[in-house]
Structure formats: C-alpha cells, structure tokens
Amino acid sequence: MLSERRLEVLRAIVQDYVGTEEPVGSKALTERHNLKVSPATVRNDMAALEDEGYIAQPHTSAGRIPTDKGYRLFVDKLAGVKPLSSPERRAIQNFLEGAVDLDDVVGRTVRLLAQLTRQVAVVQYPSLTRSTVRHVELLGLAPARLMLVLITDTGRVEQRLIDCPAPIGETVLADLRARLNSRVVGERFTEVPSLVQDLPEAFDADDRGTIQTVLATLLETLVEETEERLMIGGTANLTRFGHDFPLTIRPVLEALEEQVVLLKLLGEAKDPGMTVRIGHENQHEGLSSTSVVSVGYGSGDEAVAKLGVVGPTRMDYPGTMGAVRAVARYVGQILAES
Amino acid sequence: MLSERRLEVLRAIVQDYVGTEEPVGSKALTERHNLKVSPATVRNDMAALEDEGYIAQPHTSAGRIPTDKGYRLFVDKLAGVKPLSSPERRAIQNFLEGAVDLDDVVGRTVRLLAQLTRQVAVVQYPSLTRSTVRHVELLGLAPARLMLVLITDTGRVEQRLIDCPAPIGETVLADLRARLNSRVVGERFTEVPSLVQDLPEAFDADDRGTIQTVLATLLETLVEETEERLMIGGTANLTRFGHDFPLTIRPVLEALEEQVVLLKLLGEAKDPGMTVRIGHENQHEGLSSTSVVSVGYGSGDEAVAKLGVVGPTRMDYPGTMGAVRAVARYVGQILAES
DNA sequence: CTTGGCACTCCGGCAGGAAGAGTGCCAGAG
DNA sequence: CTCTGGCACTCTTCCTGCCGGAGTGCCAAG
C-alpha cells in the first residue's frame, strides 16, 4: 500500500500536470505544494510510484506524468467532485429554462456542457425505454394508408406511415384508436406488447390483417426508437488537446461521428452515479487518449438517458465531474417540469 | 486581358498546387504539363499573373500559389465539372435507396458527400417553405389540451401542444379537423394563412377562441419551421487541411457548430445552379480560408433545400462540384419517390 | 516575343555547443 | 528505517552557423 505522503505526491503531480501540460519534476513539486519534505525525498517517492505504474517519464531525465492508472487512482481516491459556484448554477438554470421544446433542451444542454467544461459534450436524447405512452393516434391519409403517431411522456413524437393490406373504415379506425389508447396510455413501452396482443380478436376478420399491421408497426416503433439519437457539440475544444495534433484529433473526430460508438460508450457506463473512463479503459481505439465522464439523467428518479463529456486524459476531473453532475441535475428538473 | 497561354499557366498552377500542396515553380510546370515553352517564358507569365493578383508567392524565391482571385478565375473560366464515374453513380444510388425515413436520407447523404469529396459535408433538411400540406391532425389529449400534427409532402412531421382557452367538444374538433383538411391539403404553406382566415366564422362563438388558438399555432408552425435544421458530417476530414493546424481548424470547427452561420452561408447562394464561394468571399471570418460549394436540391423542379461541402480553398473544384451535383440529383430523386 | 544564362535570395536541414532541468545514487544524520 | 544534501550523469531543447537546392528576376541575344 502506498503511504499517505506518496498519495499526496501523486495528487500534486496530477494537479500540476493538468495545469501546466508539462512533465513535473521533484523540485517544482516541493515549491508549488508545500510538502514538508525535500526534493530528494520526493524523488524517492516518485521512483516508488513509477514502479507501481502510477506515473511515467517521457524520457530519461524528464519530469513525470501520470499514467492512466495514476489518473484512475486520483479519481477514485484523491479527488472529490468540485461543486459549481452559485453564479454558475444560476447561469445553467437560466439558460436551460429558455428552452422551448425537446430538441432545444438537448441543444442547449450540449452547448452548456461544452462551454462549462471546455470539452466535447455528448447528450443522449431521453430514452423511450423507460418512458410511458401519452397518446397514440391513427390518421387515415387514404383508404388503405394510415399514419401512426406516438407521443411519449418525455415529449417525443414518432410517426410511421402504414400501408394497409385492405381498406379500413373510419368507424373501425376510431374504434381501434379508442381501444388502443385505453390500453396503453400511461403504460411503459415494455408493457405494451402484452397489452395489445389480443386486440385483433375484438374486430371483424376483414379488418384483422390491417390491425395486425398497425400493431406490428407500433411495436416496431417502440423497439426501434430505443436506439437512441444523440447530439454532440464543442468539437472546437479538441484543438486545445495538445501540440501533436493531427495524430491525436483525427481518430477522436472519427469516433465522434460514429454515433454507434458513442452510444456504446455511454451505454457501457452501468454505474448509477457518475462514470469516468480513462484512456485505454475506453474500448474504442480512437478514444484511447481521452477520458469520458458520463452520468445518467432523467425527469424522475430513474435515469432515462446519459450525458457526458469527452476530453483529454489530462483533464480537470473534479471540475469536469462537478459540471457534468450539475448539468444532469438541472436537465432532469427541466424535463420533469415540462 | 490575359493571353491564352497565361490562362493555361494559371490552370496548371492550380492543378499542381491542389495535387501537391506545395508552391509550384516554373521549371516543374514546364515538365509536368507539356507547355511548349521554356521555364523563362513561364516565369514572365507568372510575373504578369502575379501583377494581376491571380497568384502570389509565400516568400521571395519560392514557387507560386493561387490567390482567391486566381481560384475564382479558375472556377469560372478554366474548370469544368467533372462527372462521376458510373460505378460511383451506382454506389450513390444504392446507398441512398436504403434509407428508411427522412432523417435517414439526410444522414446518408451527409456521409456520402463527406466520403466522396473527403471534405466536410453540410445538408439542409428539406424546407417547408415550398412544400405542401399533406395532412393536418388534431388530437384531444385532455379536455382543454390539443396536439396539432402537421405532415408535409417532403415527409416531415411537426407537432405542437396547444393549451386551449376553453374545453372543446369531440364533435367540434372533428368538424374543425375536416374543414381544415379540406381547405389546406395539397396547398403550399404560403397559401395557408389566407385559406383558413375565415374558418372561425363557421363555428359557435364559444369555440372561436379555441379555434383561433389552433389556427395561430398552425401558422406559427409553418413560419417557425421555415427556419431550417441541418446536418453536418466528415469533420474528421478537416485534419487533412494543412500542417499549421490549430490555427486553421479551430475557427472552422467553431463556425460549423453555429448552425446559424451555416444556414446563412447556404442561404446566400442565390444562384439556381451551383454556387462556389472561395476564401474571403465567405462573410464569416472563420471560413476565410475555406471554400464552400453548394447547390439546391429538391423533389420536383424546385429546390427545397441546399446541400454542399466546406473544404480548403485548395480543393479539387471540378471533382467536388461533380460530386455535389450528382448527390443533389440523386437525393432529389429519392425524395420524389417517397 | 521567346530563350538561355547568371547572380541573388531565401528556406530547410544538419552539426555542434551550451544551458537547463531532472534523475539516481550514495553516504550521513536523525 | 527514513529523510536529507550533494554530486555526477543523462537528455532534451535551443541557438548558431553553414551549406545546398529551388526558384526568381533581369538582361542580352536570337
């Protein structure tokens, strides 16, 4: 086990490196942090930390920089979450309250996160998985053509065109609409399939084909739309990454364009609270020199989606975590109100 | 006026510079293009071209590179539009035909354009301005709460929640729905206001307040949604820009995140055909070292939206223009079919 | 108007030297 | 056993001067 002081040294190294972006040496450390020991002692500690794999030196006779493992220890044991200042909190709230619809909420959130953390922000649209049905509507566009509209309690609306196998009468349609709604409104998506299973039985044989089609489309919509959309922003902040640009930034931009990758990234974070994935802990290769801080957010007790930021492993973890957590909370509030 | 040969020299310079990214000198020119004159002659021509402002040299005794003005001349007079190869055309068509809905069409288009041109692609969602109403639906969610759903012929669906000043009966609602649709279905958005103006007169005084609210929301939706959304992709291609990265790439990324800027950019291109804006011709400062190639596309004869690419001024104009034009055509076809 | 020749300029790369920062190790003190 | 100061060593970085190459501009001749 590492002694108290060695942990303190590691913390100091991380803090200094995050601030200066330069390898940090023993002398500078003793000066900037008032460690009560001499540089020589710190050197010994550093040697020990290096043996354990927490820090490394780019070349002999250079200062040390933290490794992924070092950051991990820092995040787990040494760093708290830095709360935002109250002006910041107020700014967040004001900014988010101006949103007019769901797209706007997500858009504002992304910009806010990017600005607060000065990193790339990723916000997943509220998931349909946990949400409930507010209304289902069927519109007859033509004798054998319907439109299905699904409205969720998170304010999302999905629509599908349906080509029916046979024409369907307006009264039957109204009947179907009424029955459908009485069964599924207020219910969770996951419950819907079993709730509508026996619906066709209530109708004439002539109409059953159409009704089957409608129900199939509805269930399909519920499933398909569980695949999430997301919005990203603040990519310009990538330019602050480092000096060895093209090599670093390219794979990150590529990864960010692959929504699938990002969704997986957010999805993997199972921790109910905040998740921090550091460097190579990220599966995706392009992101192996970045860290991802993510957290679930939602209108009620349950998380309906995730949001987070992507930045260099050398990031201000306490500050970033504070911002991410705060934004998630306020977005949750906004969603609950609307 | 510039002589024929001097134009030829300019063309050669542009082509070589686009290929090599390095200033091109007189000797290399005579070798790579079989100009029938000596380097010395070319030097004289270059001096003339430089006097006219078509080319410039980074430093004394370096080769020449084209200026914005030089590219402009090249695009206007010297370059054709390079048609795509037929395998490319087939690939485009196949790729776009797999799309399942509007979002998917736009998403695929953006990826396609980015891949074909190896630059940043921007695609505007089909505009509602020119499109017509396919259906208007009113759903009673609660006694005094409605949802308005607007379906357009471009496949777009917009919805709005309406809080009514007074409860409205189901029969009145059905009546309103029927009248509304009989008047506006098939009509252009711009026509709608005058068509529905006198609708409230057909109803009882009790309901007029609510109906006014509904109509107001409808008109508002039509206007608001003229503000376009757009999708961008291929930002990773920015890393191919040049070697002086952070300075170049940052303002571009920032500009790309400002949808307003991009919309203005596309909107400014009034030319019915293809528009090419080179370097400083772009108003936005961050884009002063980029060129924008854009073109309108649409399902019928009329353009309903724009798409294009953003790349370095040093780009392959004929190839890029060819790709942009081809993609626009195929997207138009796809939209017309659906 | 074109051509070859020639002097000139400037960039880029390379070697060598000096400075600075940081390390590792050791021996001695607490 | 831990901490400390000292010292030699290692690297990187920066600056300098130097050379070669590429390209230009100008001039005089064809």
TrEMBL record, chains A, B:
Keywords: Repressor, Stress response, Transcription, Transcription regulation. Pfam families: HrcA (PF01628). Residues 103-321 form the Heat-inducible transcription repressor HrcA C-terminal domain. InterPro entries: GAF-like_dom_sf, HrcA, HrcA_C, WH-like_DNA-bd_sf, WH_DNA-bd_sf, WHTH_transcript_rep_HrcA_IDD. It comes from the Bacteria. Signal peptide: none annotated. Negative regulator of class I heat shock genes (grpE-dnaK-dnaJ and groELS operons). Prevents heat-shock induction of these operons. HAMAP family: HrcA. Belongs to the HrcA family. PANTHER family: HEAT-INDUCIBLE TRANSCRIPTION REPRESSOR HRCA. This is Heat-inducible transcription repressor HrcA. The lineage of its organism: Bacteria, Bacillati, Actinomycetota, Actinomycetes, Kitasatosporales.
